[in-house]
Amino acid sequence: MPATDLDLLIDAAHRAAEVATRHIGGPLDIREKPGGQGPVTAADLAVNEVLADTLLSARPAYGWLSEESAHDPTRTLAPSTFIVDPIDGTRSFIDGDDIWAHSLAVCDGNEITAAVVYLPLVDKLYTASKGHGAYLNGAPIAPSARTGLEGAHVLATKPNMAPKFWPNGVPNVRRSHRPSLAYRMCLVAEGRFDAMFTFRETWEWDIAAGALVVQEAGANVTDGKGAALRFNSEAAKADGVWAGVK
């Protein structure tokens, strides 16, 4: 049995990658989730199954929150909870692109204490544990030194640059996009971009792992209004997310 939660998450991420990559080029049985929540594939469900088996068999007392599992209200009573997105970037996976990730985290109370974001097709393994820094493929990472948003290179969708979100005026930034929220956060953590943000409600499984990677790398991370992120809530949602420069 892995000695630490982080070791367990790393092992689980590699097992998830083995399952996901076996589905590439095969039938995906793509379905749309109700309520406009996007597509789900046979790969998402298979990865979810192997993650649940790997993680919960090792830590049976932990709660479980996953995009591809029914919500369990008793998870908030558990000593710790796994928060996972089996495939973050399902549309990218469906399109045959390589930017999708397994996003895995452990939450103690309301705080993330261990996190892994793994992009198997581009060989990027981001890891973090509370108080011990953030790493990419075993090497420590750090954010950019930029202290202001003006002139920054940011990761955000075009709707997030609408004037209604910027009462003091839309900042002059260079905008890019990546399909995985977790990966966007990790790119900020390693200093390749100065900030990422979304002002829409965000599911916890999309940002839990990335939030700790950002925090442990030394960057700022909050919800979309600047408040501290708190995880394993009953609603399992955050009011947006902001990572990087203030």
TrEMBL record:
InterPro entries from the UniProt entry: Inositol_monophosphatase-like (IPR000760), Inositol_monophosphatase_CS (IPR020550)
Molecular function, one GO term: metal ion binding
UniProt binding sites for Mg(2+): 67, 85, 87-88, 206
Keyword Metal-binding in record: yes
Cofactor annotation: Mg(2+)
One Pfam family named in its UniProt record: Inositol_P
GO annotation, biological process: inositol metabolic process; phosphatidylinositol phosphate biosynthetic process; signal transduction
Family: Belongs to the inositol monophosphatase superfamily.
Protein name: Inositol monophosphatase
